Amino acid sequence: MAELTLFLSAFLAATILPFSSEAAFLLALSEGMPTLNALLSASFGNILAIFLNYYLGYALYEKTHTKLVASSFGRKAYSIGHKYGYGALFLSWLPLVGDPITIVAGLLRLKFFWFVVIAGSLRFLRYYFLTLMV
Q1: Which residue range(s) make up the domain with 76?
Q2: What is the pLDDT along the chain (134 residues), one digit of tens a residue?
Q3: Number of structural domains the chain divides into
Q4: Other C-beta atoms within 10 Å of 58: how many?
Q5: CA distance 37 to 108
Q6: For 73, which of 21, 34, 37, 112 is 20 to 30 Å away at the CA?
Q7: CA end-to-end span of the chain
Q8: C-alpha dihedral (36, 29, 42, 128), degrees to nearest 10
């Protein structure tokens, strides 16, 4: 049951809701949850949520692309997004800015494989490093 709670808190924290999965993760560890269970529960919840974010952005493409490229500023922003999009994914583990980056990745239709490799592994590594700190 505690694993499900941690999974859900990590999932919700990776949406645009202002919620700290790190606090829930550390609390679970301090309450005696086995490290592997906590690591897997939090990682899977967080990673599934960024998949949802990606697909939300992907679904918004049709509605936003036409408006975005209609202006010179929009075309420039879209071009910059494609140029630096994969690099920006390396910031996707950060609180506050990371979750919107995962939505923009879908909006820009970055390759899902690289999205998973970069953003997914960083989400896992964030929790892994937290386990090393306790």
Answers
A1: 2-133
A2: 789 999 999 999 998 777 788 999 999 999 999 999 999 999 999 999 999 999 999 999 888 878 877 888 878 877 888 889 999 999 999 888 888 899 999 999 999 999 999 999 999 999 999 999 88
A3: 1
A4: 17
A5: 34
A6: 112
A7: 22
A8: -60
